[in-house]
Specification:
This protein has 450 residues and is of the alpha+beta class. It has one domain: Lipoprotein localisation LolA/LolB/LppX (outer membrane lipoprotein receptor (LolB), chain A, Clam), CATH 2.50.20.10. Helices cover 15% and strands 28% of the residues. Strands 5, 6, 7, 8, 9, 10, 11, 12, 13, 14, 15, 18, 19 and 20 form a 14-stranded antiparallel beta sheet that branches. It has a two-stranded antiparallel sheet with strand order 1-2. Strand 3 and strand 4 form a beta hairpin. The radius of gyration is 22 Å and the shape is globular. It comes from Ideonella livida. Keywords: Signal. InterPro entries: DUF1329 (IPR010752). This is DUF1329 domain-containing protein.
Length: 450
């Protein structure tokens, strides 16, 4: 007797197929995290040319004499560039350059260049993060675009989709709690530098609480509090945010001195201008990309060897005046290296809108940091180049980007750099866990007042 396909049976089959598509990787695949893949999911081997070395555990030896919160040293300060990429020779390196980098070389041929150094694969994390990442590989999946079953490590170390890769960036290892002296700078098209914010920044990732329980984790994965001390026009302002895996549960509050009230930010996502940048940067440009993924459809273009900013501690050791060029960060302040990156393309989803309907992100395979990005506007023009500056923190241990990010507007010539730390007395201070009350509107009311 044959079975007749009923609507109920068909629905069940579709549900089963969908569940299988969202399932975590097999035990055989997960075992690769202890063989040919690093514990966070990168290719352990170097490339065939020897220009990218094998990963051998990362850089975990703190510099003698370094004190937490102080100026972070450059472990590769003695190295010299292997070569430079300029507007004149960009064609020879075109396959290693993003569209945004090519555009910047063309727009500023006299000043924009890449000083390319020896590649060091410094990425590292504590063993418990590696252990959690291995667990996530077997248990985590996406349900309605939201990670389920992930905690305390990279959620999808062997990603199958672009959305999984972007969640790896959002939930990358950067510590449990830290303090940064935040300073935002707007570069104008005519070469001026305007300070948009000077603030005390406290950050926390409940997702990475070492003693946390993945079964009781409530989805609130990232918290931020910024209290402005300058410029004078913005002194006393503040912002508190608690980001949730489910974007509609993310909450952000701002204190505006002229109103002397804390107000909830109604649409703290996506292409809404963020108060922390004085409205210059969008919420989802924080750290090159941040927040909700449901505004876009995500596609894995592939993995490529590309030149990206990396191990950029040299910037932390330079005076800010030497870091800022007229139209971009100074070439000599940046260290570029050849690394393998995941290339992820974003197209605005059906029924959604965004001022940058097409985007391309470049995720470092070792850390999952979105190091570079290209944004196209609604007219199809290449509009912006996003960037970050990952630095080595062997005391954490991690190679991470301490809020040092920004973008270049390729059409107007304006640009933005968040968290200029060169002149800061403290550069990414690792903190004990903050009380949960730190990231509340009530705490903001008590501190962000003038």
């Amino acid at each position: 007797m044959s079975l007749r396909t009923t609507p109920l049976a068909l629905a069940a089959a579709l549900l089963l197929a969908q569940t299988a598509a969202l399932a975590a990787v097999s035990a055989e695949e997960a075992a690769r995290l202890k063989s040919d893949l690093t514990p966070l999911g990168a290719e352990r081997a170097g490339n065939k040319d020897g220009t990218i070395p094998a990963w051998t555990g990362g850089y975990t030896t703190p510099t003698p004499g370094f004190k937490n919160g102080g100026k972070r040293p450059d472990p590769f300060a003695a190295e010299k560039p292997l070569y430079q990429v300029t507007a004149a020779n960009a064609g020879q390196h075109a396959d290693k350059l993003t569209e945004g980098v090519k555009a910047m070389l063309k727009k500023y041929p006299e000043s924009f260049r890449l000083n390319v150094y020896k590649t060091h694969r410094t990425a590292a994390a504590p063993q418990w993060v590696y252990d959690n990442t291995a667990r996530n590989a077997l248990k985590a999946n996406l349900q309605d675009g939201v990670p389920v079953g992930a905690y305390g490590g990279i959620p999808f170390p062997i990603p199958k989709t672009g959305a999984e890769a972007m969640w790896n960036h959002n939930l990358r290892w950067r510590g449990e709690a830290w303090h940064v002296a935040v300073k935002g700078i707007q570069g104008t098209a005519d070469g001026k530098h305007v300070v948009t914010a000077v603030a005390s920044g406290d950050f926390q990732m409940p997702y990475y609480f070492k003693d946390g329980n993945p079964e009781t984790f409530d989805g609130q994965h990232w918290s931020i509090r910024l209290i402005n001390s300058g410029p004078a026009l913005r002194a006393g302002e503040g912002i508190v945010g608690r980001e949730h895996l489910q974007g509609d549960k993310t909450q952000v509050w701002a204190y505006i001195t002229g109103q002397r009230r804390v107000r909830k930010v109604p649409n703290a996502c996506c292409d809404t201008p963020t108060p922390a940048s004085a409205g210059i940067s969008m919420f989802d440009q924080t750290d090159v990309f941040n927040g909700r993924t449901d505004r876009f459809d995500w596609k894995v273009v592939g993995k490529k060897e590309m030149l990206i900013p990396y191990n950029g501690n040299r910037m932390l050791a330079m005076p800010e005046a030497q870091v800022l060029d007229k139209h971009h960060l100074a070439a000599d302040a940046l260290r570029w290296e050849l690394h393998r990156v995941w290339v992820i393309e974003a197209s605005v989803a059906a029924g959604k809108r965004h001022v940058a309907p097409k985007r391309r992100y470049y995720l470092d395979e070792d850390t999952w940091i979105a190091v570079l990005a290209d944004h196209w506007d609604a007219n199809g023009q290449l509009w912006q180049m996003g960037f970050s500056n990952p630095v080595v923190m062997p005391d954490l241990p991690a190679t991470t980007s301490p809020q040092m990010f920004g973008f270049y507007d390729l059409l107007s010539g304006a640009w933005y750099f968040d968290s200029s730390l060169s002149d800061a007395a403290e550069q990414y201070k690792i903190m004990p866990r903050y009380p949960a009350t730190t990231f509340t509107p009530e705490a903001l009311t008590g501190e962000a007042v003038r």
